[in-house]
Amino acid sequence: MVNIVRIDTDEADFENRLGNLLEWEAREDATVEVTAKTAIERVRAEGDRALIALTAEYDRFEVSSMEELTVSPGKCLEAYERLANSDRKALEEAATRIKSFHETEIDESFETVDEHGNFLGYRVTAIQHIGVYVPGGQAAYPSSVLMTVIPARIAGVREITAVVPAPMGECNRHVLAAMHVAEVDRIYTIGGAQAIAALAYGTETVKSVDKIVGPGGAFVAAAKRLVFGPVGIDAIAGPTEILIVADGSVSARWTALDLCAQAEHDRTAQAILISPYRPYLEAVYREIEKLMPGLERSEIIERSFENRGAFIKCRDLEDAISLVNRFAPEHLHLAVSEPDALLPLVQHAGAIFIGGYSAEVLGDYSAGPSHVLPTFGSARYASGLSVREFQKRSSIIRCSREGAKKIGRIAATLANTEGLTAHSAAARARVEDP
């Protein structure tokens, strides 16, 4: 029997039970950050030697040099060529769709002229060197390679270094093939906090990067938090999440499959179903029980449902959306007959899947927008990974002589109000000096 928490918004203890779902992050093992910090300090102090030792400790793969942890472009090409035709075609078609979508996101430089003849605007340039973390925990993720590297290439990033854990020294050939398709420059089979440290600070072999992107486990998230500052990061990613709002119009089997698909990622993944209709909730539960014996990752799915899953009975669909905005989920699926009526009410979600045919799994692989999305409620203030993640703006201010005089008076006055007399003098010089 699958153990999934059942909650009703009309129950007296609803807020307490909801709080347990919303505050799960606080339960994270306190030793995670300590372990991550220790690994980072070792890599900073010992460089390659620490990477080799930590790879042996955590990935059970002993090597004598970093050369053995370096993947050549030729090996990626070989992996690509050895794939079945259908797998190669799927990678290429997914890459094409991702590229096509993200090409619409490119930010362009901009300049305008104000009423005083001053040219104002911004110049857009690409980050020069990024590091991509490709997760390799419970499963291999070639899709994550495409979803992170392709937007970076479109932005104009010149150098891309990827790291991917390879337990027992085995790197998934589909991941390597995706590296070939996405044209990654350098690849190292290292993972965990030590890989993040190498990207952030560099070693004798690994060149430091300007920004680190890509999802990972708890140690990777902790490491990204710790190295932020000297290097940029995209987000502190947590376990994946889906929240489905349903009115019973979508097949219970489809909804059950969508929940199981999310739960199979990891024992700490979160899959939640919200509906005003109790019979539908029960129908979906029965479908999950039917599906479980035939699912290869059923043990992971069961633990995921037990740890963080929930079926929530709400009063109506508006009530459901109010809960959505409290969760701010990574993935929101509006599995309802009239989703456009609910969409304007949604304030916080990393990605929104509209209607029964828009399965979240399509966003994982082939729809187009990157599947690297905010988790743990960070959709309240953050967005999914895009081309803009790899671009930066430099403000452009080009003043004419008359223009400087006009705005110089404003600057001089405001500088005086702040007690910054040198600022005021510098502004007045543009106003008064010949």
Give me the secondary-structure topology.
Layout: E1 5-8, H1 14-22, H2 31-46, H3 48-59, E2 70-71, H4 73-81, H5 85-102, E3 110-113, E4 119-126, E5 129-133, H6 142-155, E6 159-163, H7 173-182, E7 186-188, H8 192-201, E8 211-213, H9 218-227, E9 232-233, E10 241-246, H10 252-263, E11 270-275, H11 278-291, H12 298-308, E12 310-313, H13 317-327, E13 331-335, H14 339-342, E14 351-354, H15 360-365, E15 391-398, H16 401-417, H17 421-432
Parallel strand pairs: 1-12, 5-6, 5-8, 6-7, 8-9, 10-11, 10-13, 11-12, 13-14
Antiparallel strand pairs: 2-7, 3-4, 4-15
Helix pairs in contact: 2-3, 2-8, 2-9, 3-8, 4-7, 5-6, 5-7, 6-7, 8-9, 10-11, 10-12, 16-17
Which keywords apply here?
434 residues, alpha/beta, Rossmann fold, 3 domains, six-stranded parallel beta sheet, 17 helices
Structural overview:
With 434 residues, this protein is α/β, with parallel strands linked by helices. The protein has 3 domains: 5-28 and 239-381, Rossmann fold (3-Layer(aba) Sandwich); 47-233, Rossmann fold; 400-432, no CATH class. Helix content is 45%, strand content 16%. The protein has helices at residues 14-22, 31-46, 48-59, 73-81, 85-102, 142-155, 173-182, 192-201, 218-227, 252-263, 278-291, 298-308, 317-327, 339-342, 360-365, 401-417, 421-432, and strands spanning 5-8, 70-71, 110-113, 119-126, 129-133, 159-163, 186-188, 211-213, 232-233, 241-246, 270-275, 310-313, 331-335, 351-354, 391-398. The strands form 3 sheets. The chain has a 6-stranded parallel beta sheet with strand order 1-12-11-10-13-14, with helices on both faces. The protein has a 6-stranded mixed beta sheet with strand order 2-7-6-5-8-9, with helices on both faces. A 3-stranded antiparallel beta sheet has the order 3-4-15, with no helix packed on it. Strand 8, helix 9 and strand 9 form a beta-alpha-beta unit. Helix 2 (31-46) runs antiparallel to helix 3.
